[in-house]
Amino acid sequence: MTYQLSAMLRVKKPETVRAEHGIPAEVYGVTKENQSLVLPYNEFFKIYKDASESSLLDLTVDGKDAGKVLVQELQFEPVSGKITHVDLRRIDMKKELTVFVELKFVGESPIVKSSGGTLVKNLDRVEVKCLPNDLVEYVEVDLSVLKTFEDSIRVKDLKAPAGVVVTRPQGESVIATAKPALTEDQIKAMEEASKTADISKIEVAGKKEEPVEGEEGAEAKDGEKKEDKKDGDKGDKKEEKK
């Protein structure tokens, strides 16, 4: 799928751009100078929702073709979650590139379906290397091969499209497995362990701190010493007066 992204050269401060419902952006790469841009918020947000991180975008700047780009990095406002800045990476269509591609899980695990097990996904994307024209938005993971609880899908099992080579993680890394459903005894044991942990926390939280052994005796001795000192001081003073 092709995505069109229009932008304008930025001349205003980032704060002003955001106040005017735009997104400050920076585009760089392919031995060209970096450019500061303004992206229309609604237009970019729609692309962000629909496209993947490996989707090539056709960029125009002030109405002129600026080539193809990838979204390299996004920044968000912590409270509202709004996009506050975008970094775009120019792509040389004649050179191989390395980029992360999402994994798309298709089909259904027979053992999960028949035995009520749980599908465990360890990865949601992999790094690939390819020419830009061979770049895909996702690599499929066929779950139908998980026929027993001993089966697993590893990176080396992926069937990447022609021209696409998976570079990371290593081939033995597990993508997905099927785990048996918990038995009633296991669930009860977990519940009991949870209750025991909660009671322990309550007891610790409510426990009054006991003084360290010897503290009271030490305080008493200190008190006696202080009294002795006071009495001694008085006696010394009386002797002086005489």
TrEMBL record:
Domain Large ribosomal subunit protein bL25 beta: 97-179
Keywords: Ribonucleoprotein, Ribosomal protein, RNA-binding, rRNA-binding
Compositional bias annotation for Basic and acidic residues: 193-211, 218-242
Domain of life the protein comes from: Bacteria
GO cellular component terms attached to this protein's record: cytosolic large ribosomal subunit
MF (Gene Ontology): 5S rRNA binding; structural constituent of ribosome
Positions of the UniProt region annotated as Disordered: 193-242
InterPro entries from the UniProt entry: Rbsml_bL25/Gln-tRNA_synth_N, Ribosomal_bL25/Gln-tRNA_synth, Ribosomal_bL25_b-dom, Ribosomal_bL25_C, Ribosomal_bL25_long, Ribosomal_L25_dom, Ribosomal_uL5_bac-type
Gene Ontology biological process: translation
Large ribosomal subunit protein bL25 L25 domain location: 12-88
SUPFAM superfamilies: Ribosomal protein L25-like
Function, as annotated: This is one of the proteins that binds to the 5S RNA in the ribosome where it forms part of the central protuberance.
Family designation: Belongs to the bacterial ribosomal protein bL25 family. CTC subfamily.
Subunit organization: Part of the 50S ribosomal subunit; part of the 5S rRNA/L5/L18/L25 subcomplex. Contacts the 5S rRNA. Binds to the 5S rRNA independently of L5 and L18.
This protein's name: Large ribosomal subunit protein bL25
Gene label: rplY
